[in-house]
Design a protein that fits this description.
The chain has 587 residues and is of the alpha+beta class. The chain is built from 15 helices and 18 strands. α14 (470-494) runs antiparallel to α15 (500-533).
Length: 587
């Protein structure tokens, strides 16, 4: 089918299209029941078969009623939602399926002969030699567990063998994790996601692609997936390499001496993330642990290829851990959660949902701090009260590092070069749309807190000096007050009213003002010194699958060189000004 230059000719394309149309027409032609069925095997056991829907169904009122009933029950799985009628379903089957040369429908029938669902093909694309799978619906629940997965696999095998296509594609809503898991189990890989907005009128509602000028929140996304010929079907996703698919969600997990919680974090986090039905990665950043954390991390990475591990050569601080993890994240969004699991991982789907609604920063706000001492709760109130008055950006009270950032927010954070980092403040300083999710923090179940009093005091000092010039301005006010006080004392001295007590008071006030001035100026000078000396942000002692070495802006590691930039469009949604070609079968 290729010329000497490797290009497909128009004649070859026409021949292939005719082959596809003829194969589908043969399946839709009238025949005796069962003669063109496709068996569904689970190992050596036959669980059912696929039977083509032919023109005979147009006069079968039970078949039409069944299609209408299933279409109405699964309305949310379709782009268009409208009132379903028997006659409307009959017209759709005749004009939209049977009379279309590249479209057909199969009944999914269990081993008792009962139709339990349907699946089929939607349209053939000549440019990519690909056909789209569509109308995968299970209408009846029953004992035939996994029959829809077998149906999709059989449909794919039949298409590759009889239609001679190079790939199969499909589209599914991102809020249908069960269907996404089914397609992943079949071997489909995600390519990109299309943002959708809802249009409603008197006839119903329809989900359409958000235009290039749309700037508000989107309601849903179309997940576009593809299966190439020869792609693996089935298997354990934990031990399979990511292949072409890019993670949708990256989890950044700072840790230090968390041997007692790491195994539980892997189990609980995996259970929640698997329910999303989307590819993900977990980036474990070890801040030079001295217990068994490195050993456990290696074991987890060996069992689960979705985990990546980086160990610092020494303790570079939790702020650096978060910054490094976020820089290495490759997902459409990244979320920070600590391995002690005091922040509830079961809330991750809520964070993802709010992100899908159009928020670039979704942050957690603590309602209650179970297990925290009184001084920490009091200090938190004082700190946020101070920042509300003197900070140059809004920092919500009781906000935590448990937060999700969109890819746009991650790219903006990556442009911030400063080493004096305060993650919570920076994620609000960038100014993108944000929203809060309130929750109760769990008490620590094992290990000990790595946030003692002086660490929190240093963190508060860092936050104030990073986002406010109030200390310097306060020095000016103090100088003015001290000058006024000195003039008042001088006036009293000229009037003969003078005493040792007043002299000592004056000297004490001046000494206090001098020391306070030196402290504040020293803090800002130290920050400027740290920024100017340009030492590496961190050094690496060990890494597993951590191939995102940072080299720009003076940040570097002792790890391997970064991989070459990929030119593949997989996983990316073409946006305004993006010249990358979208697959011809994309909506």
């Amino acid at each position: 089918m290729l010329t000497s230059e490797g290009h497909t000719t128009t004649a070859d394309t026409d021949i292939q299209m005719t082959r596809v149309h003829q194969a589908i027409a043969r399946q839709k032609a009238p025949c005796e029941q069962g003669t063109r069925s496709i068996p569904l095997f689970d190992g050596d056991r036959k669980l059912g078969w696929l039977a083509p829907v032919t023109g005979a169904a147009l006069t079968d009122n039970r078949a039409i009623s069944r299609l209408a009933r299933w279409r109405e029950a699964a309305a949310d799985a379709y782009p268009a939602v409208f009132p379903v009628t028997i006659e409307g379903t009959r017209r759709w089957l005749e004009n939209g399926v049977l009379n279309q040369p590249d479209r057909m429908l199969f009944w999914v029938i269990d081993d008792t002969g009962r139709p339990v669902g349907h699946a089929g093909f939607y349209r053939y694309d000549t440019a990519s030699n690909s056909i789209e799978i569509d109308n995968v619906v299970r209408g009846v629940s029953g004992p035939a567990r996994g029959i829809m997965t077998l149906a999709v696999r059989a449909l794919c095998a039949w298409a590759f063998e009889n239609l001679h296509v190079d790939s199969l594609c499909l589209r599914v809503f991102d809020d249908n994790p069960r269907a996404i898991r089914l397609y992943r189990a079949t071997g489909f890989q995600e390519m990109f996601r299309l943002p959708l907005v809802c249009h409603e009128d008197l006839s119903g509602r329809r989900w359409v692609e958000a235009g290039p000028t749309h700037r508000g929140p989107v309601g849903r996304h179309f997940v576009t997936m593809r299966l190439s010929q020869g792609g693996q079907v089935g298997g354990d996703p934990r031990r399979q390499p990511p292949r072409d698919s890019r993670p949708v969600l990256s989890i950044v997990m700072p840790a230090k001496n968390e041997a007692g919680t790491l195994a539980r974090a892997h189990a609980e986090l995996g259970a929640v993330l698997d329910t999303l039905g989307e590819p993900y990665e977990v980036l474990l950043v070890d801040n030079a642990s001295t217990d068994a954390t490195p050993m456990l991390a290696r074991e987890i990475c060996d069992r689960d290829s979705r985990w990546r591990y980086l160990r610092f050569s020494r303790d570079f601080g939790v702020e650096t851990s978060m910054a490094v993890g976020l820089r290495a994240a490759v997902g459409d969004a990244a979320m920070v959660i600590f391995s002690d699991l005091q922040d509830p991982v079961e809330l991750i789907p809520r964070f993802v949902h709010r992100w899908r609604e159009g928020h670039d920063v979704v942050y957690g706000v603590i309602r209650g701090r179970a297990g925290d001492p009184w001084w920490k709760s009091l200090g938190s109130k004082l700190f946020y009260g101070l920042m509300a008055r003197v900070g140059d950006c809004h920092l919500p009270a009781r906000a935590t590092d448990f937060r999700l950032l969109s890819r746009r927010a991650l790219d903006a954070m990556a442009k911030l070069d400063e080493r004096n980092r305060y993650f919570r403040g920076l994620s609000h300083w960038i100014g993108f749309p944000s929203c809060a999710i309130a929750y109760d923090r769990h008490p620590r179940k094992s290990g000990k807190s790595h946030a003692p009093f002086f660490y929190l005091l240093n963190l508060a000092t860092r936050a104030v000096t990073s986002f406010s010039l109030w200390p310097v301005e306060a020095l000016g006010l103090l100088a003015a007050l001290s000058g006024g006080f000195t003039l008042a004392l001088a006036l009293l001295a000229t009037l003969g009213i003078w005493g040792v007590g007043l002299l000592h008071t004056l000297l004490g006030g001046m000494l206090t003002a001098t020391l306070a001035s030196g402290f504040v100026v020293g803090q800002y000078a130290a920050r400027a010194y740290l920024e100017a000396r340009r030492r590496p942000l961190y050094l690496t002692q060990e890494s597993i699958r951590w191939n995102q070495t940072e080299t720009a802006r003076g940040y570097w590691t002792t790890g391997t060189a970064p991989p070459e930039a990929s030119t593949s469009p997989l996983g990316r949604v073409p946006g305004p000004g993006d010249t990358r070609e979208r697959p011809a079968w994309a909506p």
